[in-house]
Give the backbone structure.
Amino acid sequence: YVDDVNRIFREEALKLGLVVLSGLLILGGMAMLLARSILRPIADMETAIQHIQSNNDLTQRVHIHNNDELGRIGSAFNRMIASFQDTVQQVIDSSHQVSSASSQLSGMVQHMNERANKQNDAAAAMATVVEELTASIENISSSAHDAQQIAQQSGQLSGRGATVVENAVVEMRKIASSVDRSANFIEELGR
């Protein structure tokens, strides 16, 4: 009788062990599938983030596998990168506009400088005429002398104005160069 009980006990223990082992294998397989479904979207997000960081590529997006929590995080990440990309593009566009305006302003300053030089030449010519008149006409000598001094002061003021305008042109060119370098750097970030 004891041998029969031991045999039945071993058979039942073996059956129970097989059931438990089968259950553990099924649970292990389900755990692996669950882990894979969680880790795959996270790995995709990590890959996208590393690609964006290493290549400054704001066109990279995360592939959305499901509409679960990780899928929603991926979608939010994609929207954030799209927003960054739009912002960078706006900065690039603005820098091009500033560069263009700076170039136009530089041209206007150069034109003003040319006009100031012409005015200076005209003032110098006027001083020469006044000098010749002084030698010819003695009774208006005093008035001619005053006119000559006024013309010289005007010429000096014109010369100072031309210097100020030239300095402004140099500074505008520096600004335009700085804006161009900033635009190039931002374009590199946008790629």
Summary: The mean pLDDT is 83. The chain is about 90% helix and 0% strand.
